[in-house]
Amino acid sequence: MRAGLTVLAGAAVLTGTAAGLAQEAGFSDIERGRYLARVGDCVACHTAEGGEPFAGNRPIPTPFGTLYSANITPDRETGIGGWSDAEFERAMTQGMAPGGKRLYPAFPYPFFTKATRDDIRAIKAWLDTLEPVRQEVDPPELPWPLSWRALLAGWNALFFEEGVFTPVPGKSAEWNRGAYLVEGLGHCAACHSPKNLAGAVELDEAFEGGFGEGWFAPDLTGDLREGLGEWSVEDIVEYLKTGSNRFSSAGGPMAEVVERSTQHLTREDLRAMAVYLEDLPAAEEVAEPGDVRDLDELLMAEGEALFVDNCTGCHLMSGEGQEGVFPALAGSSVLQQEEPHSAIQIVLGGAEKPSTEAKPTPLAMPALGWKLDDDEVAALLTYLRNAFGNSASPVEHSTVTDVRSIIEEREGTAALASE
Fold this sequence. Notes:
The protein is about 40% helix and about 5% strand. By secondary structure, the chain is mainly α.
């Protein structure tokens, strides 16, 4: 629920020390703002690898080019230390920076607009207390005419609706609190939904899974195979609080979301989010759990042999894993997503569970990309997606090749950044 997408916020002119600001804004507002910034996972997008927290310049890959997150410390020259309350609120709710500069919707203002103005100003009050960091931000790397920000006025007219979240009559206070967090500051649909050619969320398919940063964020609806249909409210809470549950472990961008954001939320808020997510209806089922597909017998046999050689030490021959340690492959929603990109990422590049207060020792899935070629990865995942009662389409060699290229490009960019 992240996340991998730019979270822009602002701050007013510094008027004194953090203690002085606390007196001016009110300690309770500042602490609430700190908490709400956790809900929005601001630190994830606004902290470059090896950089100062919230100083920005983290590259954000999009299908249209690379954007760089803003410096949201109160530095007056390179950050947002000169923003007024009204300018901060306008950026969060309308996607408009001071001077009329339109913000790209990779910054999720279409979601933040649903936050109450009191909550938005509390976030600002906390950001005002951060240590200013001088950090220039690279310009967007977008081809013309996408680099012409005036086009965003048309995007907003077509795809953006400003307005605070309105509680739904007939739903409990807990459900409405969860909806407010998930649909607003949490901006879960930004990653977990398909998008149209303009990069806008397909609202009629919201939460049914979507691409982001080369990963496929899974379905969050009640789908029994790809979604959360088998998960209870407590399963969702445990996953968001600790990084794993009896069904799955967080990996990739979601591990960062858990580590930096959701583990720090109250159980009451996590439960409210879970109650809301549990109520999301599933789309039309493509295949029920346990459905048998017409698959190539030789391909399945090759995949099974690769599974025995590489996976059974942790996940067992039954695919049931070891509860609390290694996730089950049987019934895995990540494995059974229509798009297998996240599963391919994990097999090729490995994945590390988040380190949380409840589960502080992160375990890692080792990378297998160095020893398995693209045909072998496709065979292994085709088997895993259709063994142990699972049911999903075969994985194509070309898809594995594409994902391997994404990983290699990401690793190359990270290496350059560290030099």
